[in-house]
Structures are given as structure tokens and as C-alpha cells.
Amino acid sequence: MINNIHSVYLKGEKAFEKGNFSSAKKHLLSVIDCDENYYAAYLLLFEIADKENLSSKKVFYDALKRLNPSLSIKAPLTKKTIHKKSSNQKKKTAIMTVPYIKLLIQQGKTVQAKKSLNAIINTSKNKMQINQAKEILINLQKKDKK
């Protein structure tokens, strides 16, 4: 059992930010072993699985959907539905969800949150998500002015 689950999560997050995915996975998996509802850990594990094209991506996606039924990331493709990308398609590099951005703000990562909010506003097709992002961004800008 982990004494301070949040500090273990933060170690995993730091390893993830440094690109040390194996260390990040180890920390994050120990977090969800102790708390199967630790949403942020599942998000990072999903991102790692996505970047490394791991089959565990579906497991983490299912856990995220269980914890947040309104999740706005696409379900991972199965081997049967994988299509080759044409050379002119851009690769999506980040998962941007409003709950994840709120977590970034709570952790004091407002610069990263603002970038993600702007990305949602500029790229999302979901009007509700765009409106939420605009509202959060306006509130952050008001806090910066104070």
C-alpha cells in the first residue's frame, strides 16, 4: 500500500514529462493498484499507451470511460479497423479533455492548461467542449489580471 498516493502519481507524471515512459508506467500502475478510480493516472497511462501504440490502450480507455462517461477522446481502433493514414494527415499528439485541464490548473500548471484550452478552442468540433474551454480560459485570464 502506498502511504502518499499523490506523491507517487507526481513521480509518474515527472517521469512522463521527461519521456521516461517505463518509469512513469511503473509509478502510475502502482497508483491505480491502490486506487482504481484515480482518473489522472489513467489519463497518463492512456497517453503512454497511445504514444507507444500499446494494446493496453483499450484497457485504459475503458477505465477512463467508466470514470467519466462524457469523455471526449475517441475509442482506440482495433486491429480490424486500423486504416493507413495518408501522408498529408497530421498526427494528433495530445489528448485534451476539460477534466484533464482542470486537473492541470489545480496542480498550478496554468501555462500548459492555457495551451491545451486554446488547442481545444481551435481544433475541437464539440461545441460544448469549446464553450467550456472558453469559459475556463476567461476565468484564468481574469485571475492573471488580478
Topology:
Layout: H1 5-17, H2 21-34, H3 39-51, H4 57-67, H5 98-106, H6 110-123, H7 127-145
Helix pairs in contact: 1-2, 1-3, 2-3, 3-4, 5-6, 6-7
Main β sheet profile: none
What name does CATH use for the topology of the largest domain? Serine Threonine Protein Phosphatase 5, Tetratricopeptide repeat
CATH architecture of the largest domain: Alpha Horseshoe
Query: Helix and strand succession?
Result: HHHHHHH
**Coarse structural class:** mainly alpha
CATH class of the largest domain: Mainly Alpha
Shape, per Cα inertia axes = globular
Q: Tell me the number of structural domains.
A: 2
Instruction: Measure the end-to-end span.
Output: 42 Å
Explain this structure.
This protein has 146 residues and is an all-alpha fold. It has 2 domains: 1-71, Tetratricopeptide repeat domain (Serine Threonine Protein Phosphatase 5, Tetratricopeptide repeat), CATH 1.25.40; 92-146, no CATH class. The protein has helices at residues 5-17, 21-34, 39-51, 57-67, 98-106, 110-123, 127-145. Helix 3 (39-51) packs antiparallel against helix 4 (57-67) and helix 6 packs antiparallel against helix 7 (127-145). The longest helix is centred in the C-terminal third of the chain and has 19 residues, at 127-145. The protein is globular.
